[in-house]
Design brief:
Blueprint (H helix, E strand, L loop, with lengths): L13 E3 L11 E5 L6 E2 L21 E3 L5 E9 L3 E9 L6 E5 L5 E2 L5 E6 L10 E12 L2 E9 L7 E9 L23 E3 L28 E4 L2 E4 L8 E5 L8 H13 L4 E4 L2 H5 E2 L2 E2 L1 H16 L3 E5 L5 E2 L7 H4 L3 E2 L6 E2 L8 H16 L1 E2 L4 E2 L6 E7 L7 H7 L8 H19 L2 H8 L19 E2 L2 E2 L7 H28 L5 E5 L6 H11 L5 E8 L10 E2 L26 E9 L8 H12 L4 E4 L28 H9 L8 E6 L16 E2 L4 E2 L14 E5 L6 E2 L6 E2 L4 E3 L5 E4 L4 E5 L4 E5 L5 E3 L3 E5 L4 E7 L10 E7 L2 E4 L2 E2 L5 E4 L2 E6 L4 E5 L6 E5 L18 E3 L7 E5 L1
Parallel strand pairs: 16-17, 16-33, 17-20, 20-26, 26-29, 30-32, 32-33, 34-37
Antiparallel strand pairs: 1-2, 2-12, 3-5, 4-12, 5-11, 6-10, 6-12, 7-8, 7-11, 9-10, 13-51, 14-15, 18-19, 21-23, 22-23, 24-25, 27-28, 31-50, 34-38, 35-36, 39-40, 40-41, 41-42, 42-43, 43-46, 44-45, 45-52, 46-47, 47-55, 48-51, 49-50, 52-54, 53-55
Length: about 900
């Protein structure tokens, strides 16, 4: 019978655990905030106290919201003399909380570094009802009674909330409502808690891949494009960049940033994305020398660690009235807070004057000399990629949906300018109204008006032109041509300016998509100005959007149909250019998200031959607490960072062959401007997979490379019958190294070196070239990595990564898994993988479970006479080391 290994006992007002005299063994005093006596607080029962009390330690908290400060006093029985660490679980948001111990002075709690911060508002509104742990310091206590006081003096209505606090001499790491003595022994099927702390970087860690990174980054020259591959200028072999979005903040202490770099390097990362660079180094819309100096230091430290950088330079680029943009146009840009700055997002692709302001900032950054490296950024080979614009293009709903709306209230003057621009372009092409009518067939406007109606993404649908101008296919084609020339012209100007600085590595125009599959094809074409094609895509998540809260979730797995959801983005790979994903993830609370990272590594970076991948988004210097930050995007969990040692090793060591092209869609640029699709394309609209008649089947993703080209050649598709058994619902890759059994929702990983099974493999005997496995766990990612880089059957040193589902403590799903009924709180619970394993070849001489930092645990696992051994929840581990 399964049981929760973190019992929630009835919690007393103050608990001191069985100690007398000096605490020769660890002592902890856990105190509930609501047990204060006396207490002087003003409760706010109809808002501030409307919180999820099941996430609070004793089911309540001490809270204050009113015109007076709130106070609480606690008489504690200290079991023995000692230095006690004070941990406090309180509301950190815009809060000012002070404490006093033993009659001492008031000390302000510093909330800069919190653990397990979580929104606990009943209605999930992101106002100020949050909770988090914070380490307040170390205090010397004497045996006997000690008085501890708290005071709430926040600027906003003296607000504050105190859940509990702990004074401890134990090496305690707080997680949710779990007490220092609460973790029990685990059984084979028991979900076990992840209690992460700062990495010790032990020399004994088996998962440390730091040695894979050559140092410094750039040692072999800039990262250049060689056809569809990346390589170092001074090297001959293709290079793979495996990384994360790891935004640096100038507010982060350098010591913590150095810890983070070591943590990234240890997990096999050789590439990080800074997003957006300009916002990191600017104040009030201008480059700030002090902030730039801090970023210079960070970049140089990454370089020392062998980690290359990707610059996402701009997102919501700000401008001020002093920048010279016409006042009437400036005034309809979106305000950015109270700074007087305005946002150019959505407009900048149609506004050359704004684009030029930004281009000036970009070239200034590239010309800046980093004092720590002695190099201009343009000359530094550790800068691998410069991305012109994050998630923006003229073809997307924002801006084209608004700019094409004749009644738009958002950008009316900009919309008029675009209509005028289109009219001028049409006049240049067709001379007069008669010429336009001859070309379009219908024309009920006049060029003499100086402007023409625009179609939006909805109107320019791949199935046919609809909306305000239904059936006007040729007109749609001309509008697409007009916008293509406009956007491509800006990209071309930027590419030339960037190269003029001397920059030799990769450029990316944008990573975004068109608002329909028809206009998206032209958008991809504009992106070929850059040296590398880049895209973003996501799957999973739910009602919380960017955050996690109760409600419906996108509960599907990728394994029932290859090439859908997250991986549909691969169908936009341009055949003669490197391909990158600079943002990708499968979001919690989807229960099957552990499948995403292995598919990205083995199918994306391996079979499809993609060149770079940056998981979105990495944020700390260790594994996070629960679902970190209750955000939909986090690398710092076992399902992502926990699998990275195995995946990075396979990707960077080339364990998987790139397949030949099995579906090539080609078109001359002229074909993009016909008003009909140049090729049929299925696509993921962010919620569902949309199928198009005649499109390359999604399943071809599991066979081999799928590409697009604009060279006017012949489109073609390999007969997949050799690889695809539609009756059995299995697809064997063209390389023979991967088998996608979409009928049983399982992937078999069968390269000579890295092997494993992903998905619903319970109750089946899995026979791979170097290992046989039988698991009783419903859904697994069970990977075998030969750390000596030998074929698995011959390897003498094997890392096993064994992960199943996760959930926060107290989280609850509906019976059908389509709804999150309770979010729970930290710690994260991991379902153990229960499996019987036999590695082919020599019998293991040593089998050890490893902790989450890869350090061997005490004891070992004894194999049977034939070498068979069992892993399960009694090890409370997801890493295992095998030597033979």
């Amino acid at each position: 019978m399964k049981r929760n290994v973190i019992p929630r006992a009835a919690l007393s007002a103050a608990a001191a655990f069985g100690f007398s005299g000096s605490p020769a063994v660890a002592a902890s005093i856990w105190t509930e905030g609501e047990s204060a006596s006396p207490a002087s607080v003003q409760r706010h029962p109809w808002w501030y106290d409307k919180v999820k009390k099941d996430l609070l330690s004793g089911g309540d908290w001490l809270s204050n919201f009113g015109p007076k400060e709130g106070t609480g006093e606690y008489a504690l029985q200290v079991p023995g003399d000692g230095a006690y660490t004070l941990w406090i679980r309180a509301n950190p948001l815009q809060a000012k909380l002070d404490f006093s111990v033993g009659g001492g002075p008031w000390v302000a709690v510093d909330f800069k570094e919190t653990r397990g911060q979580q929104n606990i508002a009943e209605d999930n509104k992101p106002d100020m009802r949050f909770i988090a742990w914070v380490k307040a310091g170390v205090v010397d206590l004497k045996k006997g009674t000690t008085i501890v006081k708290f005071r709430m003096t926040s600027a906003n209505s003296h607000h504050g909330g105190l859940d509990c606090f702990v004074l401890t001499t134990d090496p305690f790491v707080p997680q949710g409502i779990v007490r220092p003595d609460a973790v029990a022994a685990a059984g084979p099927a028991d979900w076990f808690p992840l209690m992460p702390d700062d990495d010790r970087f032990s020399a004994e860690s088996v998962i440390d891949l730091s040695s894979l990174n050559h140092v410094p980054a750039g040692r072999f020259g800039p990262v250049i494009a060689d056809g569809s591959k990346l390589r170092f200028a001074d090297g001959r072999e293709p290079v793979k960049l495996w990384g994360v979005g790891a935004d640096f903040s100038v507010k982060t202490p350098r010591e913590q940033s150095l810890q983070r770099i070591k943590y990234l390097r240890k997990h096999g990362i050789n590439y990080v994305r800074q997003h957006p660079v300009f916002d990191t180094v600017a104040t009030d819309g201008k480059i700030d020398p002090a902030k730039l100096a801090e970023y210079d230091w960070w970049f140089a430290e990454l370089k020392k660690a062998g980690i290359y950088s990707c610059w996402s330079v701009f997102y919501h680029f700000p401008v001020s009235a002093r920048d010279g943009y016409p006042e009437e146009l400036f005034n309809e840009l979106e305000p950015l807070g109270k700074s007087g700055l305005r946002d150019t997002y959505g407009i900048i692709q149609m506004a050359p004057q704004l684009w030029d302001l930004r281009l000036k900032a970009l070239t200034a950054l590239l010309d800046h000399r980093n004092p720590h490296t002695g190099l201009r950024y343009a000359d530094d080979p550790a800068l691998a990629t410069v991305e012109f614009q994050n998630e923006d293009c003229i073809f997307f709903w924002n801006p084209l949906g608004e700019l094409s709306n004749p009644d738009t209230k958002k950008w009316p003057l900009h919309a008029k300018l675009l209509r005028q621009g289109f009219a001028a372009w049409v006049r240049e092409r067709y001379k007069d109204d008669a010429g336009v009518k001859a070309a379009w067939g219908r024309f009920n406007e006049s060029l003499d008006s100086g402007e023409l109606t625009l179609m939006g993404p909805y109107d320019m649908d791949a199935k046919g032109i609809r909306g305000r101008l239904p059936g006007q296919t040729k007109r749609a084609g001309d509008q697409i041509r007009f916008m293509t020339e406009m956007q491509r012209g800006l990209y071309d100007k930027t590419e030339k300016a960037v190269r003029a600085t001397g920059f030799k590595a990769q450029t990316v125009t944008t990573n975004w998509l068109g608002g329909s599959s028809l206009v998206d094809q032209a958008n991809i074409y504009t992106d070929t100005i850059g040296s590398m094609i880049d895209r973003h895509n996501y799957a999973g998540g739910g009602a919380g959007g960017h955050n996690i809260h109760e409600g419906a979730i996108y509960a599907d797995s990728h394994l029932g149909k290859p090439g859908k959801y997250l991986f549909s983005i691969g169908f936009k790979q341009v055949g003669d250019k490197p391909f990158s994903l600079s943002e990708w993830t499968m979001c919690p609370p989807n229960q099957w998200k552990l499948e995403a990272a292995p598919i990205m590594a083995f199918y994306g970076m391996g079979l499809q031959g993609w060149d770079a991948a940056l998981h979105f988004a990495q944020g700390g210097s260790r594994l996070g607490d629960g679902w970190p930050g209750m955000r939909s995007y986090s690398t710092d969990t076992p399902h992502y960072m926990g699998q990275f040692p195995a995946l990075a090793f396979a990707v960077r060591k080339g364990h998987f062959k790139e397949a030949p092209v099995v579906a090539a869609r080609t078109a001359a640029p002229e074909r993009l401007f016909s008003g009909t699709p140049a090729w049929a394309q299925n696509y993921y609209d962010g919620k569902t997979q949309v199928n198009s008649p005649g499109a390359v089947p999604d399943e071809m993703f599991a066979v081999g490379r799928v590409t697009v080209d604009f060279n006017g050649g012949e489109s073609g598709q390999t007969d997949a019958g050799t690889f695809w058994d539609e009756g059995a619902k299995t697809i064997t890759s063209a390389t023979g190294e991967l088998v996608w059994d979409y009928g049983r929702e399982t992937i078999l990983v069968k390269s000579a070196k890295t092997q494993g099974v992903i998905g619903k493999a319970a109750g089946r005997a899995i026979n791979l070239p170097g290992v046989s496995v039988e698991t009783s766990t419903e859904f697994v990612s069970l990977l075998f990595t030969p750390l000596d880089d030998q074929p698995l059957a011959e390897s003498r040193h094997v890392l096993i990564t064994a992960l199943a589902r996760d959930r926060q403590s107290g989280a609850k799903y509906s019976e059908d898994g389509t709804k999150l009924e309770a979010v729970g709180t930290a710690p994260l619970l991991l379902e153990p993988v229960q499996a019987v394993i036999r590695l082919k070849g020599a019998k293991p001489s040593q089998i050890r479970a490893l902790d989450y930092q890869g350090v061997p645990k005490k004891g070992g696992i004894t194999p049977q006479a034939d070498g068979t051994f069992t892993i399960d929840g009694t090890s409370t581990a997801y890493y295992y080391e095998v030597k033979r």
